[in-house]
Each structure stands twice: as C-alpha cells, then as structure tokens.
Amino acid sequence: MNQERTKAGQKMVETSLTKAVVYFKDGNSRKFYSRDLARNSAIPDMNLGYGRLRKMVEKWGASVAKALIYDNRTEEELDRFEDGAWN
User: Fold this and answer.
1) Strands of 18-24's sheet, edge to edge?
2) Domain ranges within the chain, ordered by starting residue
3) In Å, what is the CA distance from 62 to each residue of 20, 33, 56, 77, 82?
4) Which of 20, 43, 67, 69 qualifies as a FRET site for 86, CA 20 to 30 Å off?
C-alpha cells in the first residue's frame, strides 16, 4: 500500500530540523519528522522538535527495538535508543 503525503505533510518533511527512524520489535519501521515550532513562534527551535521526538520514542519504549534521531539537514546521527535507553 503506497500512500501519498498531503501538502501539509510534505511541507513538514521539508522544513523539519530533525527526524527519527524507529524500528519496532514487530519488524515494522517508520520515519517521524519533528515539529519544531512552538505555539506562539514562527522561528523553528531544533531543541523543541528533538525533545518531542525523544519523548515520543520513550513513550513507546517497550515496543521499540531501536530508534535513531538524525539532523534532517546534514543526515548526522544525533542520538540512538536501544535496549530501552538512550546511548
């Protein structure tokens, strides 16, 4: 099943400062892109989006085999979640 992104979804992919690639214990994997804007700000904050991705992965901790967080602009790995902990 191939799904196409909406315009808003595509814009999020293009403007996100960080992304998480999550590998689940059931064999599935997904990419998640950060939401870097605060409610009352038009300026993206990388730390805000990064923190939101970490919180999401921690919430799913028991079902996550591995999660990698990358800088979406440089593709540099920023953090890694394995065995229930950040390395």
Assistant:
1) 29-33, 18-24, 64-71, 77-82, 85-86
2) 7-86
3) 17, 21, 12, 22, 11
4) 43
Other beta carbons within 10 Å of 20:
24
pLDDT tens digit sequence for 35-73: 999 888 889 999 999 999 999 999 999 999 999 999 999
Burial of 84 (0-12, 13-18, 19+ CB in 10 A): exposed
Instruction: Spell out the long-range contacts of 36-42 with Cβ–Cβ below 8 A and sequence spacing 24 or more.
Output: none
The token duo for 74 is: 């440089």
Apex 52 CA angle, 47 and 23, nearest 5: 115
56 in Cβ contact with 20 (< 8 Å): yes
